[in-house]
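INFO  loader      accepted 1 record
INFO  loader      residues=191
INFO  predictor   begin
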Amino acid sequence: MPASGIQHLARFYVKQRITMMVNRYEIRAANPDGSEGAVLAVAQQKRLAFREQVTFYSDEQRSTPVFSFQARQALDLGAVYDVFDAAGTPIGYFQKDFGASLLRSSFHLGGPGIDAYGQERSQLIAILRRFIDFPFSFHFDFKDKQSGAVVMSSERQFSLRDRYTVDVPDQRVDFRLAAAMAVGLDALLQR
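INFO  predictor   done
INFO  writer      dumping tokens
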């Protein structure tokens, strides 16, 4: 199923492929047995871009854009990133909480009916990541600001290449918003 036709997906995977000038991401469905399923979208992020923008495509040839995210401002440490559907209609946003992120990376996540806040689960791993260059496994939980219920989580697997398992128990969270946030986490944690 193409990413543009998915409103909600309870679990999917994000894999990064590192190349010389760009970071490439592959979004895959999770099969019922937990194995990787079909490719839902691919994305490419240019390194050292003046204004962050990432477009997700339906295929490896990048022929059909299906959604995207873009920073509202250039070179802003607390920038807001708007997430758009294929037609350019806003479907949500995310924003790094710069002050809180000094010790534990933290983000706001919003969309229709969603107002959530996410942080690294482990304060210890958050601090160690800042001082030791090691492929730590880490976990983000995004919780509804009113109820405290988890709306989305992203877990980096212990590996040399970045690979994430993304769980989205809240059906209000659009798949495209969750996928953009998962890729945004990887891209923004590199800074």
